[in-house]
Structure prediction request, 235 residues.
Amino acid sequence: MSCQSPIVVALDYPTMAQSIEMAKRLDPSQCRVKVGKELFTTAGPAILDALHKLNFDVFLDLKFHDIPNTVANAVSVAADAGVWMVNVHASGGRRMMEASANALAQRADNQTLLIAVTVLTSMDQSDLAEIGIDLTPEQHVKRLASLAQSSGMDGVVCSAQESSMLSNELGKDFVLVTPGIRPAGSAQGDQKRIMTPSEAMAAGSHYLVMGRPITQAADPVAVLTQVNTELGVFA
Ligand SMILES: O=C(O)c1cc(=O)[nH]c(=O)n1[C@@H]1O[C@H](COP(=O)(O)O)[C@@H](O)[C@H]1O
Prediction:
């Protein structure tokens, strides 16, 4: 499906029925969708088939983090399922990322984007300090994103607050996927490093992951349309 919008709607629901109900209200030319741990744990791979049948590009967000062999095989199975994007944790290290990239490179005509999560958007400097990382989020994101790039990743998940820095450091083709997107006035929830959709695009993000600001809205389609309009997607 060709989708002009950078928005990826996080279908974070406890049942397959709820996620499909939302997906049917959305238009695959206006957004992509993300299947994360909650939905995949309840619905399994059937949810990927169902969303593909509705013509959505699907980001399988299971943030794999394990030994290289295990992660490479999991990424390969995700690609077999036809997902548009899959992710691993950059903190799994170079050998884990390289094994995953090699697994996809060995496939004939691989179409699946392989992305590494840097520092979760729910974390700030004090969270990093508690796990023994005495760097600012920006410094740690830069370190992990450079490692991800040299390990063969197509891009990273980061906060939009780091997009401009990464775009300058790693080039405009390195894909920046940014959650923690909050339109002005919407609830921050558990996110710490946030930005509005327009700010994130201006900073160099390629894709904006949005969950609750859309899925918990009284009129989710209206919010999505408003964001797309603000971004000039249908201008
Ligand atoms: O990999 C992700 O998608 C992700 C990485 C990250 O650092 N932060 C983050 O929020 N996410 C995901 O992005 C979505 C954000 O949802 P909302 O906070 O509801 O907009 C959730 O599904 C998270 O699992």
Remarks:
- The domain at 7-230 is CATH 3.20.20.70 (TIM Barrel).
- The pocket of orotidine-5'-monophosphate is lined by residues 10, 12, 36, 61, 63, 87, 117, 120-121, 157, 179-180, 189, 191, 209-213 (CB under 6 Å).
